[in-house]
Every structure is written in structure tokens, then in C-alpha cells.
Amino acid sequence: MLNIILFGAPGSGKGTQSEKLIERYELKHISTGELCREEIREGTALGAVADSYISKGHLVPDDIVIGLLEDQLKRCCTKPGLIFDGFPRTLVQGEALDQMLAKYNERVSIVLSLEVDEDELIQRLLKRGEMSGRSDDNLEVIESRLRVYHELSAPLKEFYRNQGKLVEIEGVGSVDDIFASMASAVDQLFVKA
Ligand code: ADP
Predict the structure, then answer these.
(1) Does any ligand 1 atom lie closer than 6 A to the CB of residue 145?
(2) Omega before 10 cis (within 30°)?
(3) pLDDT per residue over 108-120, tens digit each?
(4) How close is the Cα of 190 to the center of ligand 1, in Å?
(5) Active-site residue flag, 128
(6) Using a 6 Å cutoff on CB, does residue 29 contact ligand 1?
(7) How far apart are CA 55 and CA 36, in angstroms?
(8) Strand pairing of 27-31 and 81-85?
(9) 3-state class (DSSP) for residue 7
(10) How do residues 114-157 score in pLDDT, each as one tens digit?
(11) Which residues, 6+ apart, have CB-to-CB distance to 90 below 8 Å?
(12) For this structure, is 41 an active site residue?
């Protein structure tokens, strides 16, 4: 199976690019942010806990997101591959993902890291907030999410670089150009295989 991690700061374009990757490689989409928002919409107890973290720009605790992901993995081994969007976001989650995939004799194939400078990220998220009405897309919460990204999530790049899986992709430019860089990195995997 082709198991892609789409990595990057909030606002780096993971959602947009994952749609295109899904279409091209017939992947099943796993977005922990979406899974959390679904729980919130349904008014579950787990959703209430998730909401208390998300609305402040903090990460939802590892055990909760790892649990959500485990449920998804049980259900989705029929597709040619998976795309993880917004997971892992901490080293604990990265290690948990390796272990979960190993249970299915699977592994992470590649980590695409979208690189976008901080000013551009803030502009994009503010603009998205105006349109989506997402409670976490306002300046105070955005700044907290970016801090959390640098402190807790960015170290994952080293983790995957050491595994030889990290590919950094310039995330500023046209959506199609960015997608072309990602697709060419993914296609390289098939050449090597
Ligand atoms: P973005 O990439 O724009 O931050 P997401 O939809 O991926 O948006 O995530 C929204 C929020 O959901 C995050 O700020 C965080 O609070 C929570 N969340 C999503 N995925 C995770 C995760 N893997 N671990 C912890 N919290 C998460």
C-alpha cells in the first residue's frame, strides 16, 4: 500500500493538496482534524473534550487522536493506500503510527512536508476564517497553533528525515505546481520499487 503523510503547519495547504493526491492515487483520506470536528458536530463527550483544546489552539491529547486513528485504520484496508492529513503531530503520535501500521504489515511510504513562511500562513488562515467560520481561524488562536506546530510538530521532520522518508515541498506558488512537485516525489517511489 501507498501510505502518505501530508505534513505542514496549519494553513500550509494540506487539505487542498490531499484532495488532489486522493484523486490521483485513489487513497483513503484520514484527517484527525476532520474526525475531531465530526465528534464536535455530533455532540459526543469526546467531541466536547476535543473542542476545549481546539478552540484554544492547543493539540487534542495524544491518546484521543491515536484512538480515533486506530478506529479508522480498522475500517480502511480496502483502498490502494492511505493519506494522513494532520497526523502525526507529535513524536508520540509518530511512533504510535509506526506501531499501528506494523500490525497490518504496513509502513509509512513517504512524508511530504509543505513549506510555507509564517507571514503567508497567517494571511491564509485569517482569510480562511472569514469564509469558513472555523472557530480556530482567528489571530489569537492562529498564533497559538503556529507556536504549537514549532514546538511539538516540527521535530517530526527530523524523525522522518532519519528514516529517509522526508521530502520537503515548496508550498508557495500555484496549487497545480505544488501538486506536480508532490506527485513527482510520490512517482519516484514506484521507480525505486
Ligand atoms: P490545520 O491543519 O489547519 O491546523 P486541522 O483540521 O488538521 O487543521 O486541525 C485542527 C485542530 O484539530 C488542530 O489545531 C488541533 O487542535 C486538532 N488536531 C487535529 N489533528 C490533531 C492531532 N493529530 N493531534 C492533536 N490535535 C489534533
Answers:
(1) yes
(2) no
(3) 999 999 999 999 9
(4) 30
(5) yes
(6) no
(7) 12
(8) parallel
(9) strand
(10) 999 999 999 999 999 989 888 888 999 999 999 999 999 999 99
(11) 59, 62, 152, 153, 156
(12) no
